[in-house]
């Protein structure tokens, strides 16, 4: 099929890889290792050791697919190996234990740092060709951890995310050619999907959920993209009690020189629907460099921020060539650019590193907002330049637009209907 050549915001051609959305069927994933055929049953017991042994056996026998049939199967942290995939069938649920001792402590990547922390429910490291798919559910079972977190916050308001011991749902690191498709990914204790230093990753047709009530699921980001390249999120529904697709990559006063950190480049998020979330596309709060980012053709029912540039005064950051287009929905802020000071630490550095956000385009959007332009200038901390707003139809309680905050601001066919409170 001939296709009109499209381009990333800096003019780089979009590779044909981004247009491939086929999801492999169960029969294409290799030899099937069905849980119930290996005495792993829907019996309320935690089967971590047995499922891990089945993964190891499948790898030793040349690879294949772990199949979760109808029923609910409890487990702690699992580590997939080369050639072994995961398929969750109709009516099947792979459910995380709510006991933190069922999750291995290991060196991992969390909140912009490499450190000892808990493994996720599903872990894949250094794999080529890993697929997890199927119509079933991966459920983190996080309610107990959410309640414990808020209880801790009630007596220690300064407690951090890591103070309450919580695993992520999915952690994929140093992988290539990854497909996550069709699954319900829900109720994570902590971040839902965290992908680190991986390339050619696709999230297709997934439903990613964590509740905002009656118990808020704290810091349950839908997809954290951390120092990755060539990444597609398509036809997904995301509703979480934090940010949706988040661009990360490191933090700290010398984060741009640390080898464990890195850029996010060539990221496309398209044809998705958002329920409640704090940010539809946040850059940060741990990020060094984001380039060639596209968010397009999405609908938002109740997002807090559409484009959110979190700028840390303790981290050198560069956000460039970002395009947000063809958006419809209801939001708190159409664009939010402000200093982000959570857990601020210059670690002895005497000067504040300068950050830059440039070549940002927002076009073809029809949105209802509380505030259209929520931007704070801060020339000592960051520089904003070369923004383009085009064909925007905004209804807002408050406009707030100040073109002088941005060097080389281009505005074409923008209508903001300010209706007041």
* Mass-distribution shape: globular
Mean pLDDT: 95
What oligomeric state do these chains adopt? single chain
Strand/helix succession: EHEEEEEEEEEEHEEEEEEEEEEEEEEEEE
Beta-sheet strand percentage?
Answer: over 45%
Number of helices: 2
Q: How many β-strand stretches?
A: 28
Q: Distance N terminus to C terminus?
A: 50 Å
Low-confidence stretches: none
Q: What would you call the structural class? A: mainly beta
Using only C-alpha atoms, the radius of gyration works out to 21 Å
Largest sheet: 20 strands, parallel
Task: Please specify the SSE layout and strand pairing.
Elements (H helix, E strand, L loop, with lengths): L31 E3 L13 H13 L3 E5 L2 E5 L2 E3 L3 E5 L3 E5 L8 E6 L2 E6 L3 E4 L5 E3 L3 E3 L3 H13 L14 E4 L2 E6 L2 E3 L6 E4 L2 E6 L2 E3 L13 E4 L2 E6 L2 E3 L5 E4 L14 E8 L2 E11 L5 E23 L6 E22 L15 E21 L6 E17 L8 E12 L3
Parallel strand pairs: 1-2, 2-5, 3-6, 4-9, 5-10, 6-11, 9-12, 10-13, 11-14, 12-15, 13-16, 14-17, 15-18, 16-19, 17-20, 18-21, 19-22, 20-23, 22-24, 23-24, 24-25, 25-26, 26-27, 27-28
Antiparallel strand pairs: 7-8
Quick take:
The chain has 421 residues and is mainly β. It has helices spanning 48-60, 143-155, and strands at residues 32-34, 64-68, 71-75, 78-80, 84-88, 92-96, 105-110, 113-118, 122-125, 131-133, 137-139, 170-173, 176-181, 184-186, 193-196, 199-204, 207-209, 223-226, 229-234, 237-239, 245-248, 263-270, 273-283, 289-311, 318-339, 355-375, 382-398, 407-418. It contains two helices and 28 strands.
